[in-house]
Amino acid sequence: MVEIQPLDIADPIRTQAILRRYGFQFKKSLGQNFLTNKAVLNGILDAADLQPTDLVVEIGPGIGSLTEQLARRVKQVVAVEIDERLLPILADTLAPYNNIEVVHQDILKTSLAELTANYPDHGAIKVVANLPYYITTPIMFSLINGEVQPDVLVLMMQKEVAQRITANSGNKHYGSLSIDVQTQMTAEIAQIVPRTSFVPQPNVDSAVLVLQRYQHSPYQIDHPEMFSTIVKSSFQQRRKSLQNNLANLFGKDKREQITQIITELDLPAQVRAEQLPIQKFIDLSNACFTTFASKRSK
Questions:
Q1: How many CB atoms lie within 10 A of CB 256?
Q2: pLDDT tens by residue, 139-166
Q3: CATH 3.40.50.150, the chain: domain bounds
Q4: Residue 205 — pLDDT band, cuts 50, 70, 90?
Q5: Structural element, H or E, at residue 19
Q6: Coarse DSSP helix, strand, coil percentages of the chain, rounded to the nearest 5 percent
Q7: Which among 44, 38, 32 has a CA at the least distance from the CA of 154?
Q8: How many of the other CB atoms lie within 10 Å of CB of 234?
Q9: What is the pLDDT of residue 298?
């Protein structure tokens, strides 16, 4: 007799069967949307460039659709789930795999160091996540700036947020979020994901964002506090010129010095923040530090 293999967890038929069996009700407060599009799932796997030695941390495994596929390809998966109701479901759906650890935690209250401590013998650390829209950026930055820094992040998020992160100067989506991420990692959108790919359907489309840590960063930021302050202030009122935003930051009485800095950087007098590439912001912060901060400290 031929043994019939069960459908993958991500198959819409099996997904619905699992949800019915457990009577699972989605919580809007947790931003729960389960992926049921196999093409999108395969795109996520391709984007992560998975290797047999990889250690993958998955955030928000849901019922295990992506977790199952990861476990088939890598050495170890650590899946972090905040919803206690999903733990027995995951214990059931992922029972055939011995390389998955499901951790009941809030990812914002833990660290990759804790999650990976039990698995020292691995290759790259990669994070794969279908992030709740309402806490996308806090989770992303906690991962980028944590004690243990992953080599690659593959994150499903709202399309508009992904567009802001990947935008370059001159693009309407370009802003402080673009710069905060791109000074630390390369950022590209692997695919746009229609809302019909999820159960239940969200109100917006999503995107798969791939962040990869620089081996050799193209950016050297000598004065990170000044740089961060200037970037945030420059985009605070997007329609205002860079000169006006800097005058609001340093004081109206410093307008003449600000004008001189902008001229020396070969920037148009009425240039706006969205027109400045990242390196120009670094040059600007260096010049402002020399003109304002260093003089104030003497």
A1: 7
A2: 999 999 988 889 999 999 999 999 999 9
A3: 12-213
A4: very high
A5: helix 12-22
A6: 45, 15, 40
A7: 44
A8: 26
A9: 46
Q: Candidates 3.30.750.24, 1.10.8.100, 1.20.1250.20, 3.40.1190.20; correct CATH number of 224-296?
A: 1.10.8.100
Q: Where are the beta strands (DSSP E) in the chain?
A: 34-35, 55-59, 76-81, 100-104, 125-130, 152-158, 185-193, 198-199, 206-213
Give the annotated binding-site residues for S-adenosyl-L-methionine.
Answer: 33, 35, 60, 81, 106, 130
219: tokens are 């950016």
Task: Please give the mean pLDDT across all residues of the chain.
Answer: 93
DSSP state of 79: E
pLDDT tens-place string over residues 107-119:
999 989 999 999 9
CATH C-level class of 12-213:
alpha beta
Identify residue 102 by its one-letter amino acid code. V
Backbone φ and ψ of 233, nearest 5°: -65, -35
Instruction: Supply 221's token pair.
Output: 């930021």
Which residues fall in the annotated binding site? Answer: 33, 35, 60, 81, 106, 130
Of 146, 107, 139, 127, whose CA–CA distance to 54 is shortest?
Answer: 127
- CATH 1.10.8.100 in the chain is located at 224-296
Strands annotated E in 135-226: 152-158, 185-193, 198-199, 206-213
Contacts of 106 (CB under 8 A, 6+ apart): 82
- What is the distance of C-alpha 110 from the center of its chain? 17
